Amino acid sequence: MRLHRGDLTDEQLAGLPDDELEAWTEAHAIGAWERNEPDSIPPPTEAITIRVPRELLTDLRVEATIRRQPWPRYARDLLLYAIRQVQAARAAHAQQAEPDGP
Fold first, then answer.
1. What is the crossing angle of helices 54-66 and 71-97, to 10°?
2. Residue 6's CB: how many other CB atoms inside 10 A?
3. Could you read off the pLDDT of 42-78 as tens digits, one per residue?
4. What does the pLDDT look like over 19-45, one tens digit per residue?
5. Residue 97 and residue 93: Cα distance in Å, rounded?
6. Can you tell me whether residue 3 is helix, strand or coil?
7. What is the DSSP secondary-structure string of 36-55?
8. E strand residue ranges, the chain
């Protein structure tokens, strides 16, 4: 097994064999792993279907593979990130539009 020091690029991480990736991840982990609360119930979810260009789906799958995530999970994370960015921009715009006090 090769030893890797410091940060690796996405390409280097994606190229590691499973045993090396596990060892690297454990060596660079912050804190101990904590089990989820047994009584925690995940929020209800809804399934959505969208049509996207083939190239966009290919790009999504490539990026998910680099990050070693299933592409549907990565798509959900990107959608959540985009929504949070839009909400933050809308809040900042609304704050700027408010008239100053007396």
1. 100
2. 5
3. 788 899 999 999 999 999 999 999 888 899 999 999 9
4. 777 777 777 666 666 776 777 777 888
5. 6
6. coil
7. PPTT--PPP---------HH
8. none
